[in-house]
Write a structure and sequence with these properties.
Layout lengths: L14 E3 L2 E3 L4 E9 L10 E10 L4 E5 L6 H8 L12 E9 L2 E2 L5 H8 L2 E4 L13 H12 L5 H14 L16 H13 L5 E5 L7 H18 L2 E6 L5 H4 L2 E6 L2 E7 H6 L4 H10 L13
Parallel strand pairs: 5-10, 5-11, 8-9, 9-10
Antiparallel strand pairs: 1-2, 3-4, 3-6, 6-7, 11-12
Length: 297
């Protein structure tokens, strides 16, 4: 069983959301269970089963697990994509979830929209979800004008240019269309889009999935560098334990819907309390030192 102290990272106070001061963690999850709606009992199984942890303000938590472990379902819930009226949205069946000081379970449509202004979400294959009929600049700016269609065009353009530069793309990329970019470049654009409203919490679901191995580290370094500059909280999902050290010292390991290890990544792997964690620890013995790079900074 995981020690209660491992559930929480360092506490940071004073984070402001919707006019209120949040003195606790950016994310607080307690005994949370999630499942997908289905008429078929075989596909109605619980995807996340009674997990608990915190993410402190200004902290990055890496969540690791194999396909089907529940990590992406958990990310959806924290990114406010649970309890939506479609089959791809999980339902909360137990426990509590608090994001930036606001309880999410049973949140109203208006409350979700207001809280969502402070939560950036980078879903799986985000770069491939860009609107093909819009330029890169228009794709990145779209969340601004969805929020306020009268927003100043020049100010929006400056914000987009700043982020395009931050994700290490030439400013001329703004006038191109997604199909003119490589997959790695599109993923950088998606990161810029997720950051355009300056979120206080970023959820990145497997941001290097499908990206050529030669540029995966660059994608992670961009996210970490932006976090160091802006001090937002983040949950980064990955299936690759070798990537964890690059983004965070703190990890939660999921297996079949539950957390089987959480805490400092080196401590969790050095003293595994679950066979799955022990297997991951053994797998690291086969990785090259370059695959276990330290975090940026």
């Amino acid at each position: 069983m995981t020690d209660a102290s491992a559930l929480t990272g360092p506490r940071v106070t004073g984070q402001t959301v919707t006019g209120q001061t949040v003195t606790g963690p950016a994310v607080s999850v307690r005994d949370l269970s999630l499942r997908y709606r289905s008429d078929n009992p075989q596909t109605r199984s619980i995807a996340v089963n009674g997990v608990s942890f915190d993410i402190a303000a200004g902290e990055i938590l890496a969540v690791v697990g194999e396909t089907g472990s529940g990590k992406s379902t958990l990310a959806k819930a924290i990114a406010l994509r649970a309890e939506l009226p479609d089959e791809t949205s999980p339902s909360v069946t137990g426990g509590s979830l608090t994001v930036l000081g606001t309880g999410v379970r049973g949140i109203s449509h208006r409350g979700r929209g207001r809280l969502g202004l402070y939560v950036g979400y980078l879903p799986q294959e985000a770069g491939d979800r860009l609107e093909p009929r819009l330029t890169v600049g228009e794709n990145v700016a779209e969340p601004i004008f969805s929020r306020d269609r009268h927003f100043d065009q020049d100010e929006a353009g400056q914000a987009v240019a700043t982020l395009i530069d931050a994700v290490r793309l030439p400013l001329g990329t703004m006038n191109k269309y997604p199909h003119e970019l490589s997959k790695g470049q599109r993923q950088r654009v998606a990161i810029a889009r997720a950051m355009i409203l300056q979120p206080r919490l970023l959820i990145a679901d497997d941001p290097t999935a499908g990206i050529d191995v030669t540029v995966r580290s660059a994608i992670l370094d961009i996210i970490v560098s932006m976090q160091l500059e802006h001090s937002f909280s983040a949950l980064i999902v990955t299936a690759d334990l070798g990537e964890v050290h690059r983004v965070s010292d703190r990890v939660a390991i999921m297996h079949r819907g539950i957390i089987v290890g959480i805490g400092d990544v080196d401590e969790v792997l050095a003293d595994p309390r679950h066979p799955y964690v022990a297997g991951l620890a053994r797998s690291l013995d086969h990785l090259k030192p370059s695959q276990l790079a330290d975090p940026v900074g």
